[in-house]
Specification:
alpha+beta; 9 helices; 21% strand; 11 strands; Hypothetical 12.0 Kda Protein In Nam8-gar1 Intergenic Region, Chain: A; Alpha-Beta Plaits; 242 residues; Arc Repressor Mutant, subunit A; three-stranded antiparallel β-sheet
Length: 242
Amino acid sequence: MKGPTFDQERIHVNLCSLKKGGETFELVVDPDKAVELKERQGDLSIEDVREVLRAEKVFSDAKKGLLASETHMREVFGTSDPLEVAKVILKEGNLQITQQFRDRLREEKKKRLVHLIHINSIDPRTGNPHPEKRIELAFEEARVRVDEFRKAEDQIQDVLKKLREVLPIRFERSTLTIHLPSDVAPKLYSTVQHYATIVKEEWLNDGSWRAVVELPAGLRVDFIEELNSKTQGRAQVELVEK
């Protein structure tokens, strides 16, 4: 006997599906919020679940509008409450999203990876960061596969392994000593914090500020240029050799 149906006109093609206890259970989800939830760690609240669902229903076949049997849900999940069941499906299930959304998500992850590599790495032959366009080209040359469902930070080491087949690249952080004049030091403190981690700092008797900072090597040139621009070239910046 078929289960009850749900208005098929409202069924969205982006799903989260779980096969459990010999049955298939599906949710109709907002793809952006579902991916965001999948990337998070920890337990899900009912409010988290409500944010993701397009409809507070559990389906046996969402595309046909067939609702899951309450009896089957109780047997498999110990409850027929759709929100409690949905928590398990979202945690353990697989996202089934449209190709259009998948392509968009993959492109966003690729851009994030390119940016992270640009600001955190250098060309060991020159000591300078690779331009983002060169990194993008290396993605194509090395046939890098971007996983749209993994955080960019979680897959960056796998990506680097492939990129190094076609592009000399090294992750590196730079340590700098900086000295800012008293009339601009307070205003530029937040600028320094935006780019770098302050390792050591000292306010001198004349009101000037001296510090040792660390930052991704790829940001070093931009950081120094911004300090020089905002101090009319009066910022003193030196690279600490390792």
